[in-house]
Amino acid sequence: MEITDPVLRLEERINLLELEREAFLKQDRYSDADIAAKDLANLRIKLKQKQLELLKNSHLNEREILEKNFSDESSAFNRTWDSLIEAYLTKCDSEIQEFNKKHKEDYSIERKKLEGTLHMFFKPSSALLNMMKCKEKAVKAGKYADAQILHDQIEEARIFEESRFADQKRSAVDQGLVNFEQGYEKKMQSLKKRHQTGMNELEIQRLAEFDVLAKKYDNLRREMENTQQIMRNIQEGKHTTAAGRHHQSPNKTLYSTSSSLNPISTNRNNPEN
User: Are 228 and 62 in contact (CB under 8 A)?
Assistant: First the structure.
């Protein structure tokens, strides 16, 4: 079956050239072996370049996947928190509407209560009472003309005093309702303050949780970048620590599949290595 993978094709060609070079050396065909060795060197350079290109593409894909995961998780996070805040605001609005509804009912009850408990009944003034006594004396004395005059004055004074009394009672009720409204406003401000405090706490919690999410991806990015840098160093032959070379040699990356194609190592019989 034809091999379409460029890395596999190069590895296959390198394996075949290794075999050819082995055969030329056994046949003392050193010129041909030299040509094969040069071709091997060029192919290994191409293989290394292709492996490095694939490695870079793989790393780019890893970064794109990580950023997409962060974007998806951030979007899900924001949707969740938007729903929580919307539910909280709906709850606050419901509480305010319920509070206002109850206030209207309480206001009506308070008005009736004030009008009923303010036992303010009209009482004639001393001047009016004196005029009423004078009228009675005039009637008894048969001074009907004087009694009529006093009667008219008494009615006029009574109307005036009753009107003044009604105004005073109305003012007392209105003042009581003003005091009631002031109490309502204080309670409303307290309720709104409690709502705002709750909203502030939610915002603080949201920022704290997003900070945890962002730091998680910052750590993942650093870990990924460090790992990718080590892999590039290994691929480019820059990684010189024993642990690094033991983990992965420059000519064998995670893209190398030569061992599955041929059990003969590409470096086993290479005099240059």
Answer: yes
